[in-house]
C-alpha cells in the first residue's frame, strides 16, 4: 500500500506528490534560511499525511502544537516534566502509535538537547514488537546535531548528536523515518545530513550553504546561484520519494498555523505629541502587579493515559472479555514469576514491563491488563512480597506513600509489611535487593529519603539494633541488626 502526499505545484502548474511509503524508507532533509517557508512545508506534509502514519514532532519553538486542535496530536510541554518522564512518554508513544508534538519551548539549549536525546533514545530503544512506521520530524535540527562544539557540556552534545545519528542512520529498520529541517547546512553534522536521500532546498544566501545544497541536489556550482533567488515557499526537490531530477515546488496552502504567526505590518497609533508625553512621564499611581502564575502542568501519569487512549488508524480487534478475577490471578501469577527471577531485581521497571506484556500474551491475555504506570506500582509491591489486597488492606499504606518515586515504593512497603506483622526490621541488604541495587550505602540513603518525607522514624537502641516506625499508621517493626 502506498499514499501520495500532494505538496504543491511545479513551474508548469502540475501537482507534485511525495510517495509516503518511499519517504518512510529514504528519509528527508529540508534546508532554508529563516523565512524561506520550512515550517510551512513541514506543516503541509504533516497535515496531508495525518491519519496515514504516526507522526512524532520535536518542536523547539512550539510552532506545531496547533496540529492537535484539528488532527488530534498530543502536545507535551517538555518544560513541565523531568527528563525521565519525557523518556517514558517516548516509550509509551511507540507502543500506542500516538501522534505527538514534543514542545521544547521554554527550555534553554542544553535542556532542549537533553530532552530530545532522552526522547529519541526511548523511541529508538523500543522493543521489536513496537517497531511501527512513524515520521519523526525534527525542526531546527542543527541545534540537536551541531557540526561543531555547541555552548553546552560535552556530555549533552554527545548524547544529542548520538540520538540524531541513530535516528537518521539506524532508525529505518525500527520504522523511524527521520525528517530534519535546518536553517544552515554548514551547522548540521555531516553524518546526520548525509543519510537523507530526499532533499527540499529553499532560499539561502551564504555561499557555503548554497554550495552544499547544490552538491546534494547534483547541480553544478555555477547553478547554485538560483537557490539564492528562490521565492519564499518555493523549494528545489530531489529524491526517490519525489522526483529523479531537481524540480521547483511551490508549496500549497495549510489548514493550521503557528501560535505566533508571521510578522505583519500594522499602522502605528497616531496620538497627539502632548498626550504621548503625558502618558510616558506620568507617575505610576498603581503598583505594578506580578503576572498571574502559569497554569499547572498536567501530571505525567495523565499524559501517559492520554497517549494510551488516543485512537489509532489501526482497525479495532475483537478482544475476548475476561472475568476480572481471572485477570487478577493472571497478574498475580505473572508478577510472582517475574519477582522470582533472580535477574529481575537489577532490571528497571520499563524493561520488566515488556517482559510482563510478553508473559501475559503467552497465557492468552492481550492487551496487558496493567498500564506501564500501574505495573510499576504493582511491581514495587510484589518486590516487597505483597501481591494481593493493594486496594484493600494495603490501600492506606500506599496512599500515604503516593509522593514517593515508584522505585522507592517497594522499600517502603517492605518496611510496612514487617511493621504491620511485627517482624524484625528489614536489613540494609534486603532493602537494597528490593530497590534493585547491591549497594548498602544506597539502601541507607533510601531510608534517609523516606524518613526525610516524614513517612518513617528510625530508632536505634543501646545494643545497636534498629526498629522502624510508620507514624501515620502506628506500625513498628521489631528491633533487628541493620546489616
Automatic annotation (TrEMBL):
GO function term, MF aspect, one: ATP binding
Transmembrane stretches, start-end: none
Domain Helicase HerA central: 10-69
Superkingdom of the organism of origin: Bacteria
Record bears the keyword Nucleotide-binding: yes
Alphabetized UniProt keyword annotations: ATP-binding, Nucleotide-binding
Keyword ATP-binding carried by entry: yes
Name of the protein: ATP-binding protein
Amino acid at each position: 500500500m502506498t499514499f501520495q502526499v500532494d505538496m504543491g505545484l511545479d513551474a508548469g502548474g502540475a501537482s507534485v506528490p511525495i510517495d509516503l511509503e518511499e519517504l518512510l524508507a529514504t528519509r528527508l532533509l529540508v534546508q532554508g534560511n529563516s523565512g524561506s517557508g520550512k515550517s510551512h512545508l513541514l506543516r503541509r506534509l504533516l497535515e496531508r499525511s495525518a491519519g496515514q502514519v504516526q507522526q512524532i514532532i520535536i518542536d523547539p519553538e512550539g510552532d506545531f502544537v496547533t496540529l492537535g486542535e484539528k488532527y488530534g496530536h498530543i502536545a507535551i510541554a517538555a518544560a513541565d516534566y523531568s527528563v525521565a518522564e519525557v523518556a517514558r512518554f517516548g516509550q509509551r508513544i511507540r507502543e500506542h502509535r500516538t501522534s505527538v508534538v514534543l514542545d521544547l519551548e521554554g527550555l534553554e539549549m542544553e535542556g532542549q538537547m537533553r530532552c530530545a536525546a532522552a526522547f529519541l533514545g526511548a523511541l529508538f530503544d523500543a522493543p521489536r514488537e513496537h517497531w511501527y512506521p512513524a515520521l519523526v520530524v525534527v525542526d531546527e535540527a542543527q541545534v540537536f546535531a551541531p557540526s561543531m562544539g555547541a555552548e553546552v557540556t560535552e556530555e549533552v552534545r554527545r548524547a544529542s548528536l548520538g540520538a540524531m545519528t541513530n535516528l537518521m542512520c539506524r532508525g529505518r529498520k525500527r520504522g523511524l523515518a527521520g525528517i530534519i529541517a535546518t536553517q544552515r547546512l554548514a551547522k548540521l553534522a555531516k553524518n546526520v545530513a548525509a543519510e537523507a536521500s530526499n532533499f527540499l532546498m529553499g532560499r539561502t544566501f551564504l555561499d557555503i550553504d548554497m554550495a552544499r545544497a547544490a552538491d546534494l541536489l547534483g547541480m553544478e556550482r555555477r547553478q547554485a546561484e538560483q537557490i539564492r533567488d528562490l521565492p519564499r515557499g518555493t523549494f528545489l526537490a530531489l529524491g526517490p520519494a519525489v522526483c529523479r531530477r531537481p524540480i521547483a515546488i511551490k508549496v500549497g496552502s495549510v489548514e493550521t498555523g503557528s501560535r505566533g504567526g508571521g510578522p505583519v505590518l500594522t499602522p502605528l497609533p497616531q496620538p497627539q505629541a502632548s498626550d504621548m508625553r503625558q502618558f510616558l512621564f506620568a507617575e505610576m499611581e498603581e503598583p505594578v502587579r506580578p503576572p498571574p502564575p502559569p497554569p499547572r502542568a498536567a501530571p505525567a501519569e495523565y499524559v501517559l493515559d492520554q497517549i494510551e487512549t488516543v485512537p489509532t488508524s489501526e482497525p479495532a480487534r475483537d478482544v475476548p472479555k475476561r472475568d476480572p478475577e481471572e485477570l487478577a490471578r493472571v497478574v498475580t501469577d505473572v508478577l510472582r514469576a517475574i519477582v522470582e527471577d533472580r535477574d529481575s531485581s537489577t532490571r528497571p521497571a520499563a524493561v520488566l514491563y515488556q517482559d510482563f506484556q510478553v508473559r501475559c500474551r503467552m497465557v492468552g491475555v492481550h492487551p496487558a491488563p496493567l498500564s506501564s504506570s500501574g505495573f510499576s506500582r504493582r511491581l514495587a509491591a510484589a518486590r516487597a512480597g505483597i501481591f494481593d489486597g493493594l486496594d484493600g488492606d494495603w490501600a492506606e499504606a500506599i496512599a500515604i506513600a503516593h509522593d514517593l518515586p515508584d522505585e522507592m515504593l517497594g522499600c517502603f512497603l517492605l518496611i510496612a509489611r514487617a511493621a504491620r506483622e511485627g517482624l524484625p526490621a528489614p536489613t540494609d541488604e534486603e532493602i537494597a535487593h528490593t530497590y534493585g541495587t547491591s549497594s548498602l550505602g544506597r539502601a541507607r540513603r533510601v531510608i534517609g529519603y523516606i524518613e526525610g518525607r516524614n513517612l518513617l522514624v528510625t530508632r536505634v537502641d543501646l545494643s545497636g539494633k534498629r526498629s522502624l516506625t510508620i507514624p501515620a499508621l502506628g506500625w513498628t517493626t521489631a528491633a533487628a541488626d541493620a546489616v
